Amino acid sequence: MEEDDASIGSPLRVVLTFLLIVVLPLAIGLFAAARLTPRPQIGIIRLSYDINSQTAYEIGEQLRTARQNPAIKGVVLVINSPGGSAAFSEELFLDVLDTRRELPVVASIDLLAASGAYYMAAAANEIYAKPTSSVGSVGVIASLPGDIFIDEDLLTTGPYKAFGGTRDGYVRQIERAKLAFLDAVQVGRGDRLTMDLATLSRAEIYTGVQAAEFGLIDGLASGEEALRRAAALAGVRQYDAVELYPLTFDTDTIPLPEVRYQPQPIDEARLRQAPAALAPGLYYRYVEPSAAR
Amino acid sequence: MHKAALYLAIFVVLLLAPSAVRLFQYYRPLAEAPATPPAYTGAGIGAVPTPEAGNGADTVQTGAATRRVAGAPRGVVVLDQAHGNQFTREELATLDGLLAARGLQVRPLAEGALTEALRAATGLVVIAPVDGYSPAEAQAVSDLVARGGRVLLVGDPTRYNIEFDETDIFAAPIIATAQAPLNDLANAFDITFRGDYLYNTVENEGNFRNILIGADGFGDSALTEGLDRLALYSSHSLQLGPSAAALLSADDNTWSSATDRPGGLVLAALSPAEGDAGQLLAIGDVHFLTEPYSTVYDNGAFVARVADFLAGGGSTGTLAGFPYFFHSPVDLVYSDDPDLGPDAFDDIIALQAAFRGVGLSLALANEAAADHDVIYAGLYNTAEDVAELLDAAGVSLAIRPAIARPATTATTHPDATPTPSHGTRLIESPLGDVEMAGTALLLLADDGTRRQLVVLAASNDGLENALTRLRGAASAEGVNLTDCLIQDNLALCPTGVANEPVEYALVTSGPADEPTTESEQPNGSQADSPEPTDKGAIELGQTKTAELAAGEIHAWTFRDGPATIDITVDPDADMDAVLELYAPDGTLMANLDSAFAGGVEEMRAVEIPDDRPYFIIVRDFFNNGGHYQLSVAAGEPAQPDQPESTPTPEPGG
User: Whole-prediction pTM value?
Assistant: First the structure.
């Protein structure tokens, strides 16, 4: 009994015991906590250009990174894009929906989220914009194929092998793509969308204020607020905002894109001529009109 | 044991505490889970079917039902391609076929004056022009409508032209639309093409700009009667004034891009508005005329109705439209079958060249073929072939006065070479009475089967000058009628021949073969009349036959008075008899030249007061002479309210 008292009372033993019972687990706990409970991150993905095969790939890879990185608890899509290719816009829409199964995704519209860019944003949990951001242009633009013909030296096995289809058939494909767009917006926005689809199909561009009124977005907010909303949806109290591009790509070999979308107005005459300016295909693309006629 | 457990607990707590603190620091344990992502299946994407083709069978049979003869169109529709029109002929294949089936000839106007082209037209089609129309052209279109023609004006918001200044790459491009040019023509009919396009996002034909029009949107017109639904593929709206009526109106879900307001939008209109009197049809879309859009719903039937509308254009040309009112091969027929010499051939050749210049054929013929149009050329004196045409036009060729009132100035006895006052040869027409001498008559007659142009003059030179006028047909100015008295299809023009004689027969052999049978001066004045040949007495009830030599005058003596007598001269066909009656003192009692060559001169109810010798003079107006019968019969005294005689003017040769 005395030995026990003596052992306990030994200063050395007290120190050792303290180190073993208190300091050691605390040190291990602190060390492990940094790894087991990393500071959560809200990933930032920037869509700052037309949607095409390259940009769709880049955004898609960043979304994959977000899904696969346990530290990333949410994603904010910072959008400044007029849209672009219909199929790649739809791919991004589906990628965002896929990501939402694991992480909340919030879209933050800077200057413009039009057409295909809004298509993608519609899949996000929430969408925010600035009061004068440009939002909308829900619709399709495409140039119709020319008249069909046959040639003595060009042999095909079907009347539309060289043309893809009839002009009238293409018109209906375009209309159906519009319906797909409207359906996607309706699916993404659900009951929050207060605008009827016939009106939405006018493909107008709305300001952020109008878009909020019509339920195209969830509110007016800054990019920081969008981050906070993403964090809140993820149940995160503190977080780091991280750019996902450097985490996804080796910026030494694939540098961060320097191009940032700026409106590139197309004057009316060139737009009228243009179908030529559009490569074959369907586009969820907003074509900014020129200021001067 | 307890102590060890305590130590272990402390160890564990302290081991986990940092993580717990971080968890608590970083996360909200009770945060609401985000909503489950929606499932996207694409099930909400509706179908956009191609509409069923309507019954586009054309009820009009191609062929003889609408064509009079092969190559002879029922009407001419000018297709304007001279104003930067934004369409191709290939696009109009459907309409072309329908017009051809109705016997209409489509004449594209790629260059040249619309005013000239419309002179021949019964219809006009103008599609998406981007070059403006001059006031003269607009007036020509109005004139076409005024004379019964039909006009189809078609706009389309997708048809425009863009021009770039190649010398200045920074210059703004010029976008030329069809709105203003169409309104150059349409405004006169209370129709204005607006610069908008129509759209419907609620119910459309595959695209917001493809407007569906149901029976509720049809105006009361044969153009839409019995149709159920039409689709117009991008259309302007039309603004209408009181004299225009809406033919196609959009529903309340259709909006105008100009106002961004729905309702009350008109896509097609007719003017004038009354019933089916519309002669100008304005439509805001061209696509429905083209394939495949012409096969959708009732579009095909509507295009056929549009063709019917154009076929309904009146074929009434006017003289100013010479020679375009001819639609069949034209026969040039000289009346009285004259021997034609070099001068005539010059006229014919020049006229043929003029006709060829405007795509028509002209051939000299002795007699007009039944299915050909015809130009009759001749002298008034040989106008028997066209007597019916002249009569139908209210034109009479007459000699007035038929019986002169008792001369106020005594003339000498016939033996003393009397100078009787002959009647004046007149053209009596709705335009007034004009002397034949110095005047050419041009008359266009259209009896529904052929068009006949009558050209008459008093002399060979006058006729030649009249035909020369027609040669201008091939020029841009067209036939020159500016110095003519003209109304509808009748023109009286100066021949430009000074002191023009009224010639007996057409002689075109030229200066080397001047006719031996020279004509007299106008009005039959006989400055160098020969002495009458005394043919002896003629009694009441007698008929005498005599042969009048060229330049000869016969004098017959009547002594069976007092009596009321009828004096009749029945000449041969080539003789234009003139009958005069002189009193014993040489005073001219009456004269008569009411008929042309071959016509009977009949002086009725002439009072012979006594049994002294009265002289009956018979001569030929043209001094050609001829065979005749002279009769003197008892006549009925003239009633106070009846004219002294009832000569029957008759055109003839």
Answer: 0.70
